[in-house]
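Hi W.,

Here's what went into the run:
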Amino acid sequence: DAGVIQSPRHEVTEMGQEVTLRCKPISGHDYLFWYRQTMMRGLELLIYFNNNVPIDDSGMPEDRFSAKMPNASFSTLKIQPSEPRDSAVYFCASSLGDRNQPQHFGDGTRLSIL
Amino acid sequence: GENVEQHPSTLSVQEGDSAVIKCTYSDSASNYFPWYKQELGKRPQLIIDIRSNVGEKKDQRIAVTLNKTAKHFSLHITETQPEDSAVYFCAASSPYNQGGKLIFGQGTELSVKP
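Here's what came out:
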């Protein structure tokens, strides 16, 4: 079991640039979640997918953020244009089945916007 | 919607002592309660979980108790060791129509002093 794989592990870029974070869920998992973690706000759910379909994007901060899941093994979270306040650790997680199942987290992407 | 409150936010204990972290939830329909441990700079990792048909579950030095009537659950760590130092998150499953979504508490930073 390779676990949830995220890339890149670290990203440093200047404000205004486009940032794309990538996630490969555990094979066979049908739920995928994107979280943002900061000291001030803790662990925030941004969006989640079920069978590649976005179910709840109410946590997406604003229109600068978008997420896609073109197939069962790949998802992206895009920020365009990026701002310094977007600096955080972004985690992807996946789970199998409906309710009562643990989420398995990737190692995260540490994003710094200068 | 579901809300999860976690206390305390920080906890400091001496090595060998016990540590207890408590969480309350608001939605009586929640029936799955995982606990995650996050070491500095790493991803949240599942350490134990409990489902609503069980009142207590143990795994070596870790135990979780659930009181569905009072809508609270607790993590108990006995014989604490320095490597138990981390941030611990509780979570509760969302209402049925929100699928695999988990609602996380704010986290407890546990420090075990040698």
